[in-house]
């Protein structure tokens, strides 16, 4: 497992905490509303083919105290422009999931020349009254994120794991707090109007058992981006990279490396 690294970006002066490992073309991974559970299996899978760079968004995880420094989704996009500058990277592939997919799409729309290929998994950011998913912020305090999994019991095994339950629970709530700043009450800040600006070949992925981002929303993302393709990841909830790491990585790898849509083998997620 690679160590968590830190780099200061300019002009904001914000420290960015990130994992980096692997060989090959640079792939920027933008995480979901609950951050990252360390160097996750999906990232390890991807590092076999790519130079994987996985930062925590400002306000999440070890960067939780930075939440006041980012007022809007645009601030996060500009932060990642500065982050790539600090790493000396001009253009990268990007894979984002959940709120990370939203930020990846914003990045690709605002600075299209810096994105080579794009994968958006269960993207949040388009609101449709006819395709409302469940509200991730209106859940039981005892199991605040169980709804993000295909089966509620997977929260304990895949998110909490062997960490101290109290510490893991506090981190979970702090990450939800960060997500709520950008998503509550309705996670729509106009990204649909900016999707036509995306030039990178794009794959949109929805999860078969996602109760937050419903399948019709995936079609709206696909239709908004010229030439985009759409596929479904079976047997996964919203946090697909935790439930189906190998299948998640296979979809990203095939699209980024070959411009193809993989037919990944899914595994039975165990609690």
List keywords for this structure.
globular; Rossmann fold; single chain; 17% strand; alpha/beta; 271 residues
Topology, pairings included?
Layout: E1 5-8, E2 15-21, E3 26-30, H1 41-46, E4 51-55, H2 73-87, E5 92-97, H3 99-110, E6 115-121, H4 154-160, H5 165-183, H6 191-194, E7 202-207, H7 215-224, E8 229-233, H8 240-243, H9 245-258
Describe the structure.
This protein is an alpha/beta fold and 271 residues long. The protein has a single domain (5-258), classed as 3-Layer(aba) Sandwich (Rossmann fold). It has helices spanning 41-46, 73-87, 99-110, 154-160, 165-183, 191-194, 215-224, 240-243, 245-258; strands at residues 5-8, 15-21, 26-30, 51-55, 92-97, 115-121, 202-207, 229-233. The chain has an eight-stranded mixed sheet, sandwiched between helices. Strand 3, helix 1 and strand 4 form a beta-alpha-beta unit. Helix 2 (73-87) crosses helix 3 (99-110). It is globular and about 45 Å long. The relative contact order is 0.16.
Listing every helix as H and every strand as E from the N terminus to the C terminus, the arrangement reads: EEEHEHEHEHHHEHEHH
Beta-strand content bin? 15-25%
Number of domains: 1
Q: What would the average pLDDT be, to the nearest integer?
A: 96
Q: In summary, what is this structure?
A:
The chain is 34% helix and 17% strand. The chain has helices spanning 41-46, 73-87, 99-110, 154-160, 165-183, 191-194, 215-224, 240-243, 245-258; strands at residues 5-8, 15-21, 26-30, 51-55, 92-97, 115-121, 202-207, 229-233. The longest helix has 19 residues, at 165-183.
